[in-house]
Amino acid sequence: MPGSILKRADEMVSLGADIIDIGARSTAPRSPPISVATEAERLSAALAELDGTGIPVSVDTMHCAVLERALSHDIHAANDISGFSDPAYSRFVADAGLPALLMASEKMPGDATSFRETLANLSRIVNRCTDAGVSSYILDPGIGLWTSSRSTALDWEICRNFEQCSQFGRPLLAAVSRKTFLGEPDGRPPEMRLPASLGITALLIQKGADIIRTHDVRETAEVIRMASRMVDRA
């Protein structure tokens, strides 16, 4: 519906969001694929609603053609869940002068199967950014069931050891909102995972998370405000 993106973005900002992440295809595992052309068209239509509003926007795409289309709008960062696995994409981001949010990945999004591999993939991203000349970027350890070989046990391990991701000297993003591991042990559906999302979020802030991605802005903003005071990071 025309205007729905602007209405929702305005609401999220009023509730405490600092940046709105917009994508045109689902990044959830086993989601049906769409063409690059369709993704570009959908994303451009969504971004057009926010042009001139001053609302900070990051664009969630792994494709140069989609990002190039997005650059005709008011965008402020690129969110690449493949972690610059495509050198052409990283060079494009560098040439555009955009900050980047980059998820731990080697060849495909979230393909680490252990915490050791997660750290190795974050190290790869640091090297990719150096090679491409991208100096402003945020690391995302990639919590979630991104591939069929991953399990919720890895999500718990990443959360327990989250502070180790600080070794790369970059800001860290934590994205746990409503994810599968928070429904354990009784398989609670996403709409019943808010308390768990907020609890883990507070703990991850203590462990070094600098940016939180969430579906539930009002509640998460309050957790961030309180947790940041507890760890003296206001």
Assigned CATH class of the domain at 4-164: Alpha Beta
**Secondary structure tally: strands:** 7
| Gap from first CA to last CA | 38 Å
Strand order of the largest sheet: 1-2-3-4-5
> What is the mean pLDDT?
95
Task: Kindly state the percentage of residues in helix.
Answer: 40-55%
Q: What would you give as the CATH superfamily of the domain at 4-164?
A: Dihydropteroate synthase-like
- State the major sheet: 5 strands, parallel
Silhouette: globular
Under the CATH scheme, the architecture of the domain at 4-164 is: Alpha-Beta Barrel
For this structure, the CATH topology of the domain at 4-164 is TIM Barrel
| Percent strand | 5-15%
Low-confidence stretches: none
Helices, by number, come to: 8
Task: Look at the helices and sheets and give the structural class.
Answer: alpha/beta
Give me the Rg, rounded. 17 Å
SSE ordering: HEHEHEHEHEHEHEH
Compact description:
The protein is an alpha/beta fold.
Report what the structure shows.
- By secondary structure, the protein is α/β, with parallel strands linked by helices.
- The protein has a domain at 4-164: Alpha-Beta Barrel (TIM Barrel), CATH 3.20.20.
- Helix content is 41%, strand content 10%.
- The chain has 8 helices and 7 strands; from the N terminus they run H-E-H-E-H-E-H-E-H-E-H-E-H-E-H.
- Helix 2 (36-48) packs parallel to helix 3 and helix 7 (194-206) packs parallel to helix 8.
- It starts with a helix and ends with a helix.
- The mean pLDDT is 95.
